[in-house]
C-alpha cells in the first residue's frame, strides 16, 4: 500500500483537484484506490458522489470524522486530501505516515510567501530529511509566460526538494470535476497537453513502489 498526502496550509491552492485527479488516475489503471477526505468541507467526497457507477471504483473515506486514515486492507493506493490551515501535531502525524507528499502552489505573491513558511514547518514537523526525496512541489493553475509564473518557477526551483510538475489553468479540470471524473478520463484529444504535464509527477510517485 502506498499513500500520497496532498497538503498545503494555504486554502484555495487546488489540493482537492490534485487529490481527485490522482485517485482517478490510479483507479483507471486498475488499482484498488481509496480517497481520504480530511477536510470538513467534504469537497473530495462530494466529487466522488458525482462519479458514474460505470467508472472504476474509488473508495471514499470520511477522514474528517475520525482524523485517521483507515482504508480497506487490499488498498493499493491511498490519496489523502488534507484540510487548509493544517499545522502542528496533525501535520506532523500525516506527513510521517505518508509515503509521498505533494504540495500544490499557486502563482501569486501571497501563495509563494505562504508556501515558503509551510515547507519549512512541514520538513520540521514531519521530521523529513531532504535526502529522503519524499516531498515534491508542483505549480498549479499556471498561465505560462507570465511574470508571476516566472517568479513562482524560480521560487520552486530554489527549494531543496523536487519540483515535478506545472499544471496549466484550464476549464478541463472543471469539466472533469463536475462529472466526478479526472482529467485522465476525459476524451484524449481534449486533454493531451494536460496529461503530458502530469507525467513527471506520476513517474515520481510511482518510483515509490
Write a short abstract of this structure:
Helices cover about 45% and strands about 20% of the residues. It is built from eight helices and seven strands, in the order βαβαβαβαβαβαβαα. It has a single domain, classed as Rossmann fold, CATH 3.40.50.300.
CATH class: Alpha Beta
Span of the ends, CA to CA: 9 Å
Order of helices and strands: EHEHEHEHEHEHEHH
Percentage of residues in helical conformation: 40-55%
The largest sheet, given as strand count, sense and whether it forms a barrel, is: 7 strands, parallel
Mean pLDDT: 90
- Strand arrangement, major sheet: 3-2-4-1-5-6-7
Structural class: alpha/beta
Total number of strands: 7
Indicate the CATH topology.
Answer: Rossmann fold
Quick one: overall form?
A: globular
Instruction: Please compute the radius of gyration using only Cα atoms.
Output: 16 Å
Low-confidence regions: none
Number of domains: 1
Query: Strand portion, in percent?
Result: 15-25%
CATH architecture title: 3-Layer(aba) Sandwich
Count every helix, treating DSSP H or I runs of 4 or more residues as helices: 8
CATH H-level homologous superfamily name: P-loop containing nucleotide triphosphate hydrolases
Amino acid at each position: 500500500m502506498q499513500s500520497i498526502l496532498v497538503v498545503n496550509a494555504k486554502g484555495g491552492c487546488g489540493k482537492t483537484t490534485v487529490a481527485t485527479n490522482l485517485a482517478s488516475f490510479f483507479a483507471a489503471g486498475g488499482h484498488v484506490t481509496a480517497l481520504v477526505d480530511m477536510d470538513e468541507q467534504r469537497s473530495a467526497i462530494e466529487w466522488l458522489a458525482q462519479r458514474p457507477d460505470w467508472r472504476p471504483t474509488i473508495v471514499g473515506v470520511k477522514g474528517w470524522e475520525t482524523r485517521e486514515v483507515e482504508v480497506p486492507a487490499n488498498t493499493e493506493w491511498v490519496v489523502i486530501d488534507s484540510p487548509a490551515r493544517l499545522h502542528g501535531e496533525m501535520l506532523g502525524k500525516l506527513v510521517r505516515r505518508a509515503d509521498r507528499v505533494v504540495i500544490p502552489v499557486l502563482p501569486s505573491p501571497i501563495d509563494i510567501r505562504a508556501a515558503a513558511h509551510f515547507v519549512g514547518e512541514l520538513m520540521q514537523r514531519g521530521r523529513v530529511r531532504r535526502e529522503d526525496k519524499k516531498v515534491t512541489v508542483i505549480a498549479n493553475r499556471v498561465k505560462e509566460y507570465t511574470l508571476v509564473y516566472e517568479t513562482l518557477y524560480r521560487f520552486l526551483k530554489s527549494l531543496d526538494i523536487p519540483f515535478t510538475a506545472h499544471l496549466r489553468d484550464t476549464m478541463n479540470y472543471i469539466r472533469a470535476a463536475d462529472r466526478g471524473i479526472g482529467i485522465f478520463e476525459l476524451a484524449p484529444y481534449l486533454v493531451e497537453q494536460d496529461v503530458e504535464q502530469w507525467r513527471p509527477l506520476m513517474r515520481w510517485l510511482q518510483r515509490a513502489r
